[in-house]
Amino acid sequence: MCGIVCAFDLKQKAEDLRPQLLEMSKRIRHRGPDWAGIYNNEKAIMVHERLAIVDPASGKQPLLSEDKQLILAANGEIYNHRELRKQFPDYKFQTESDCEVILALYKEKGFDFIDEMNGIFGFAIYDVEKDEYFIARDHMGIIPLYIGWDQNGTFYVASELKALEGICTKIELFPPGHYMSSKDGEFVQWYKRDWTEYDAVKDNETSIKAIKEALEAAVHRQLMSDVPYGVLLSGGLDSSITSAVAKKYAERRIESDDTQTAWYPQLHSFSVGLEGSPDLAAARKVADHIGTIHHEIKFTIQEGLDALRDVIYKLETYDVTTIRASTPMYLMARVIKSMGIKMVLSGEGADELFGGYLYFHKAPNAKEFHEETVRKLSKLHMYDCLRANKSLAAWGIEGRVPFLDKEFMDVAMRINPQDKMINGERMEKWVVRKAFEDMLPESVAWRQKEQFSDGVGYSWIDTLKVMVSNEVSDEQLANAKYKFPIQTPTSKEEFYYRSIFTEHFPSDAAALSVPQEASVACSTKIALEWDESFKNMNDPSGRAVARVHSDAYVKA
User: Fold this and answer.
1) Across residues 297-314, what is the average pLDDT?
2) Residue 318 CB neighbour total at 10 angstroms
3) Catalytic residues, which ones?
4) Phi, psi (rounded to 5 degrees) for 82
5) Distance (Å, rounded) from C-alpha 480 to C-alpha 506?
6) How many CB atoms lie within 10 A of CB 79?
7) pLDDT value, residue 547
8) For the chain, is the Cβ count within 10 Å smaller at the N or the C terminus?
9) For the whole model, what pTM was predicted?
10) Percentage of the chain with pLDDT > 90?
11) Residue 80 pLDDT more than 80?
């Protein structure tokens, strides 16, 4: 994980803006504590804060092409970089960095190369000779990216909002799956898939074997690392699967095509929760089963409350669900960092791909079910991807998410949506459970969904509700439209978080970067039409969905 801050279309002298860019970049140094680099000429400034995961010795950025005409500042990982390099036998690579292949692809193919890469990224390329820049973000927005303009019209690109706040009068999210060129300044969607349409998948066959093979390949790809790594293991289905598969491959170094012993063969797993939480107990069972070196991080409710202000600053959001879940993750990340772990695998994305949230029990038919998964995926960059990335990056840790691997997503989203449906015999994510039941304890493979903020201990959310009720009066909430005329809070909890957010990020542009949508158990607004009980309800907790818990599902 790294951080970038770039300025293009300079309206002031570069020597005057350079100190400002360095200060802006310092605000996101937590993302890349290992090294800082800067490139500038009279027309562009590019700053990079590095977290060294691949090629720590020589992969410093910004990266320059051999002729020094192309400059790259990138945050992310290109998992298939070794295969891509084979296309360019005559290109003189300067480093072993996985990101350097971006320069070769751009030089040879112009804009038409991004979908060849399997990875997570937000990057900017500057062409010195043409005085042009090119910016792109990965397919799901796993890596955060923002753009903005200052009062003079200088254009900025940054990994986090805080780098731009107070400098830019206009700030926007750079949309996932898009690129932008200075030739026209327009967003162009590069990530397009047929499976977004129900008619393209409704008659497809479902292969449990294909799901297992594709996810194992994704995890294997994402173990690319020259530094110690670990796995996040909540004890839920998704993190248990990624942990079990990672353990399968961890003893061999994937960069050697599994011919050499791994540099760090002992796989460490981490779970977080309140004393006695359901997640801690389940995670310990999985760790014992798969054989990881397991670490339980226990936090107290007071420690969580004390961290809220920092969490909101680091996460750059006031979304209720995100803050509830991010706080334990943020506390856990600090302990992981203290142990020298710099990269972890996490289980985000499975619930969106397979309809794992409990409200999916109410889906009326396969078409509605499928279309909701597509909607959820399109919004993921504002919720779970943001949480996973920024909670970990706050302490200089990179998070990787195998379920959102580009190749695996194509397999998962092309299976027949009818086979994802929840009925009297099959529980949520049945196809995934079936694919990996042989690698997990039975009680975990068939453990019902617990949202992360619930699973760390129910009293965490219950205490938050009581606390904000005491801190925010009925009158304050009733008059919230005067204090917050843009995206007015609809609950006391949102009002409380928004008040802290505004202290850090006072601009309207910052407020508009945060999503606001009525939800039950993480649903989209459209899915509220599925059940009469959802109407006039706005509760993101999984416990909001009643009468869907059962032990009677068939596992065969």
Assistant:
1) 96
2) 28
3) 2
4) -65, -40
5) 16
6) 25
7) 58
8) C
9) 0.94
10) 85
11) yes
Per DSSP, the three-state class of 12 is coil
Per-residue model confidence as pLDDT tens digits over 112-150: 999 999 999 999 999 999 999 999 999 999 999 999 999
CA gap 394, 390 in Å, rounded: 6
For residues 366 and 392, give the distance between their C-alpha atoms in angstroms, rounded to a whole number: 35
Give dist(CA 30, CA 83) in Å, integer.
31
| Residue the block writes with tokens 């796993």 | 142
Helices 320-338, 458-471: axis angle to 10 degrees equals: 120
Quote the tokens at residue 83.
């295969």
**Residue from 348, 335, 349, 351 nearest 268 by CA:** 335
Q: Which of 419-458 are b and which e, b meaning 16 or more Cβ less than 10 Å from the residue's Cβ?
A: bbbbeeebbbbbbbbbbbbebbbeebbbbbbbbbbbbbbb
With contact defined as beta carbons under 8 Å apart, do 321 and 540 qualify?
yes
**End-to-end CA gap in the chain:** 41
In angstroms and rounded to an integer, the radius of gyration of the C-alpha atoms of the chain is: 23
- The predicted pLDDT at position 414 comes to 98
pLDDT band at 452 (very low <50, low <70, confident <90, very high): low
The two structure tokens encoding residue 470: 């005491």
Supply the DSSP symbol for 525: S
Please state at what angle helix 301-315 crosses helix 320-338, rounded to 10 degrees. 100
- Residues found in the chain: 556
Contact between residue 262 and residue 253 where contact means Cβ atoms under 8 Å apart: yes
